[in-house]
């Protein structure tokens, strides 16, 4: 038998949505089901990605690097190459080189020349997970899968591999800043990003005519251990002397030819170092000759030149520019000017305009434009083609490490930048605490901006259909946690119903990251909320197969709930844990969990939680082939769900009831129930409904179209009578 959605779940605001079975026949074809499908709007699948277009290429300031592009393109022409990884230290121009190749192929395709059919650019962000990347790639090559997040990691990889191997559907996928996936900045760690090992293994297989281009600081592969590697590395080191000279001249650096050549030499041909050097000249007004030869600037060219240039740039920032740089360093993603302004002032541009403060806005916009023009700030076009701004990782890292340390010339007695002293002591404990407090306060300001934008960017709860609809809320929560406002973040998460939505959409990795940032040792919550969140994390880790982590958090939750005599919370945790035990085949322990949960509910009844426990007991009985008991449990659970008007859970129970009838060879009755379940789940935009559709396709293929169509008609004829045994009339519509 093909199994149905063999899952149960606890209450909507205290547990997790059902994890769909993956044992359906995955043949994709027309679904011959006589029900009216619901028209769905196309979804943006770019959640937590920093950009879906390459960096802007200004021909006046961008070196074309033709020889290197030709080399990489030649590497792709090798049939034994599936992926090329551009590696090198930060600032060598890996992203720009990838963008130049991407634009060349775009132009070739537009002019009818040989080029991949699909060109997809994805810039990875601080919180990007592997399922985010796979979903965005599939959408970009016109093979979207709404149920992707609910599949197991190996099935997600298989879906991507099949799509990339399609004949005559070649694609070039660019994954920029891949190092963020290898070494995430967050507490969530690499494990929380998804099955990275499986993805890296996939890159070493045949991708057909498709290719993947990645940029990273280094390769994650040990090439000595791979006999026939399909991922080739290309080291990006420096630009040539002629290119370096041209870059400086195009950026307005004036000086004798030998001086400009000397700058290239002192910068070791490092692209971003040359950009910083030109920016310093523009911001300081110092001549190139003075920068190269004045005694007070000799320390600039010794040691770590990039860091010295960043220090010098900070020294020559005016107060408004300084505020812009520090505010922008707090953001993990490119941000519109409104976000930078509100982080600095705590007020919106519109509000300042109403107060007659146009001079403040004008000064801010002028300095933002100046910093962008000289290359200190990078301009990024987002998915809506709205200008957004970001700092280069090297500049951002330095600014955060020295946050709110005023080294500008206005606050210094010296007339030259405070060059690093290798003998200097680190900051005192008091200074370190002050800096940490400044960072915390800064993230609170950033969170206030995103919270302000929730009403503008996020649809009402009942209209949300994807992660893209709640991205602003999630970013707010992250900055609240960085601002040590953990309880506020927890309250907002549950007020906005994020738990239920993200579980239903399969965003388990992202939700784990949010929750663990609130729990000790990183955060602090009220004991009742701590137990509740720990219970959720235990369930989520169980869902992604991290069973040891799951047990740790379940034990933590039960300890907190028993200590606080929170019987209802304990019942929820036991139910969630029981569901995972059942899925893992530990039936005896699972049954004990559900029965203990039902006993705890005798003192404090919860109809929805009771429905969940009964549903799970039904699933256990069905797996043990005790069909009578399974039927009784399902019917009792269904009556409670319909009484509570919980259509989502009603649709899930109906699905499993239909599967039970099908297993007992009651085919007409089974289809009558399954059609009702499918219609209900489609109307709720349930992404797991596609699995039920595939199961019905498999039935047709097994029976033959003629017999299946006749059976469908007979099932619909008896559907009202069949449903009347289980659900109230208003739930059958």
Q: Which blocks of ≥5 consecutive residues have pLDDT under 50?
A: 1-44
The oligomerization state is single chain
Estimate percent helicity. 40-55%
Strand content: 5-15%
Strand tally: 8
| Widest sheet, order of strands | 1-3-4-5-2-6
Total of helices: 31
Q: Report, as a whole number of angstroms, the end-to-end distance.
A: 29 Å
Secondary-structure-derived class:
mainly alpha
Using the alpha-carbon principal axes, give the shape: globular
Task: Summarize this structure briefly.
Helices cover 55% and strands 6% of the residues. The protein is built from 31 helices and 8 strands. Helix 9 (271-284) runs parallel beside helix 11 (305-315), helix 13 packs across helix 17 (429-457) and helix 24 (567-583) packs antiparallel against helix 25.
List the helices and strands and how they pair.
Blueprint: E1 49-51, H1 66-76, E2 83-87, H2 94-110, E3 118-124, H3 130-140, H4 153-164, E4 171-176, H5 179-182, H6 196-203, E5 211-216, E6 231-235, H7 241-250, H8 257-266, H9 271-284, H10 288-293, H11 305-315, H12 319-329, H13 337-345, H14 349-354, H15 358-373, E7 377-381, E8 387-391, H16 393-401, H17 429-457, H18 471-482, H19 486-495, H20 498-505, H21 508-516, H22 527-543, H23 547-563, H24 567-583, H25 587-600, H26 607-623, H27 627-643, H28 647-663, H29 667-683, H30 689-703, H31 705-723
Parallel strand pairs: 2-5, 2-6, 3-4, 4-5
Antiparallel strand pairs: 1-3, 7-8
Helix pairs in contact: 1-2, 3-4, 7-8, 9-11, 12-13, 12-16, 13-17, 17-18, 18-19, 21-22, 22-23, 22-24, 23-24, 24-25, 24-26, 25-26, 26-27, 27-28, 28-29, 29-31, 30-31
């Amino acid at each position: 038998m093909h199994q149905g959605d063999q899952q149960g779940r606890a209450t909507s605001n205290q547990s997790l949505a059902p994890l769909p079975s993956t044992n359906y026949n995955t043949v994709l074809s027309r679904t011959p089901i006589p029900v009216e499908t619901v028209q769905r709007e196309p979804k943006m699948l770019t959640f937590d990605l920093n950009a879906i277009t390459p960096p802007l290429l200004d021909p006046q300031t961008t070196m074309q690097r033709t020889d290197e592009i030709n080399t990489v393109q030649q590497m792709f022409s090798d049939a034994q190459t599936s992926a090329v990884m551009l590696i090198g230290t930060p600032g060598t121009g890996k992203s720009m080189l990838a963008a130049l190749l991407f634009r060349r192929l775009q132009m070739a395709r537009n002019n009818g020349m040989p080029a991949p059919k699909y060109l997809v650019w994805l810039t990875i962000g601080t919180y990007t997970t592997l399922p985010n990347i796979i979903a965005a790639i599939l959408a970009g090559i016109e093979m979207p899968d709404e149920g992707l997040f609910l599949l197991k990691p190996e099935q997600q990889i298989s879906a991507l591999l099949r799509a990339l191997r399609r004949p005559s559907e070649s694609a070039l996928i660019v994954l920029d800043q891949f190092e963020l996936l290898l070494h995430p900045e967050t507490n969530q760690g690499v494990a929380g990003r998804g099955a990275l090992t499986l993805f890296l293994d996939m890159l070493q297989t045949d991708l057909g005519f498709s290719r993947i281009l990645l940029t990273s600081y280094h390769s994650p592969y040990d090439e000595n251990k791979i006999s026939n590697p399909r991922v080739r590395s290309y080291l990006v080191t420096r630009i040539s002397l002629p290119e370096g000279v041209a870059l400086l001249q195009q950026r307005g650096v004036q000086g004798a030819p030998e001086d400009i050549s000397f700058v290239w030499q002192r910068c070791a041909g490092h692209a971003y170092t040359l950009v910083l050097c030109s920016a310093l000249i523009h911001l300081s007004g110092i001549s190139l000759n003075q920068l190269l030869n004045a005694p007070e600037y000799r320390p600039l060219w010794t040691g770590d030149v990039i860091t010295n240039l960043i220090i010098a740039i900070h020294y020559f920032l005016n107060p408004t520019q300084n505020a812009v740089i520090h505010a922008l360093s707090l953001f993990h993603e490119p941000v519109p000017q409104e976000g930078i302004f509100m982080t600095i002032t705590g007020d919106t541009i519109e509000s300042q305009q109403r107060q007659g403060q146009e001079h403040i806005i004008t000064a801010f916009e002028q300095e933002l434009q100046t910093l962008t023009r000289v290359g200190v700030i990078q301009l990024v076009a987002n998915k809506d083609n709205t200008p957004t701004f970001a700092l280069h990782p090297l500049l951002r890292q330095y600014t955060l490490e020295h946050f709110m340390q005023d080294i500008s010339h206005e606050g210094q007695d010296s007339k030259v930048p405070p060059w690093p002293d290798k003998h200097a002591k680190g900051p005192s404990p008091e200074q370190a605490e002050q800096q940490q407090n400044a960072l915390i306060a800064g993230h609170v300001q950033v969170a206030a901006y995103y919270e302000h934008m929730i009403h503008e960017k996020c649809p009402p709860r009942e209209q949300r259909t994807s992660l893209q609809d709640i991205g602003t809320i999630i970013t707010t929560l992250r900055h609240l946690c960085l601002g040590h406002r953990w309880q506020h973040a927890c309250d907002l998460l549950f007020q906005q119903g994020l738990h239920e939505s993200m579980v239903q959409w399969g965003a388990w990795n992202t939700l784990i990251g949010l929750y663990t940032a609130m729990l000790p040792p990183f955060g602090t919550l009220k004991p009742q909320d701590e137990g509740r969140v720990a219970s959720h994390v235990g369930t989520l880790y169980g869902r992604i197969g991290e069973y040891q982590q799951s047990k740790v958090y379940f034990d933590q939750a039960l300890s907190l709930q028993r200590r606080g005599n929170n019987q209802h919370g304990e019942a929820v945790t036991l139910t969630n844990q029981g569901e995972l035990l059942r899925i893992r085949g530990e039936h005896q322990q699972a049954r004990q969990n559900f029965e203990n949960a039902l006993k705890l509910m005798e003192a404090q009844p919860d109809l929805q939680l009771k429905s969940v426990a009964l549903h799970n007991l039904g699933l256990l009985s069905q797996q043990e082939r005790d069909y009578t008991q399974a039927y009784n449990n399902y019917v009792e659970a269904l009556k409670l769900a319909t009484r509570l008007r919980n259509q989502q859970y009603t649709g899930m129970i109906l699905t499993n009831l239909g599967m039970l009838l099908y297993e007992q060879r009651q085919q007409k009755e089974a289809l009558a129930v399954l059609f009702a379940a499918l219609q209900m789940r489609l109307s709720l935009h349930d992404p797991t409904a596609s699995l039920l559709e595939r199961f019905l396709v498999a039935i047709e293929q097994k029976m033959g179209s003629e017999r299946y169509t006749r059976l469908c008609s007979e099932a619909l004829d008896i559907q009202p009578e069949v449903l009347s045994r289980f659900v109230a009339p208003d739930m059958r519509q």
